[in-house]
Amino acid sequence: MNYFAPKTAAERYATGRPDFHANTIRHIKEYLQLSHKLPNALDTACGTGLSTKALLEIADQVYGTDASPEMLSHAPLPEKIHYSIAFAEQQPFPDQLFDLITVSSGVHWFDIDKFLAEAHRLLKPGGWLVIYENHFIAEMEGFESFAGWFPDVYLKRYPSPPRNNDYPWVNENLQTKGFSLVHEERFKNAVDFTKKKLALYFTTHSNIIDAVENRGTAYEVVEEWLYQELTPYFANDDTIRTIRFGNWIRYIQRVNY
User: Fold this and answer.
1) Residues 184-203: what's their mean pLDDT?
2) pTM confidence score
3) Contacts of residue 223, Cβ cutoff 8 Å, sequence gap at least 6
4) Parallel, antiparallel, or unpaired: how do β-strands 59-66 and 98-104 relate?
């Protein structure tokens, strides 16, 4: 199931996901030592285009693809970015067009072996596949207990749907696909939330979408529960709390054959 295909999910995603991709792109620019923009970059599983928009900093021609038309209907800057509806494993581009392919917080939904074959086809020899994840680690400044609430309360009520988190991102495997894992990087992003914004962010999770689309729970019921659960962490509706997200980046290079 594509949890981000429904119209309501896309609408919430467009307004509820924090935009901190530019910080990740700065890390990529620094590591790849890009003194000039790359000719062509592709963002696969681009969703509502936040990760795609950030690529304009490092590429002249930017392309974004996603399997959900509803998500792409909210994507920004269509006059500057070439958007297409496509699955990650089957892209509508000629061989060796791209200098860089990125995937932000989406590779765990792919058939990864098929995607790597497609990425190898699309990348120029020596080109880069950069996979990164901005994931919720529940670090709220001033409230250590929030780190326990997330797995012990939230995830127990709304468990995560199955995803491919066990893929072997090691050279023993990747080199058989024509790639080499060159570097990995980890850091944290700080994002400010009010209670309402944090509740909205949670409703963009596949956990909540699964509960709504497959188990008959209404978004309004989820939001009411979230407001009650989050109230101890917010003095009032205007209170702002800083939450740190974990970020990892894998720099994977297409070998020269």
Assistant:
1) 97
2) 0.96
3) 199, 200, 203
4) unpaired
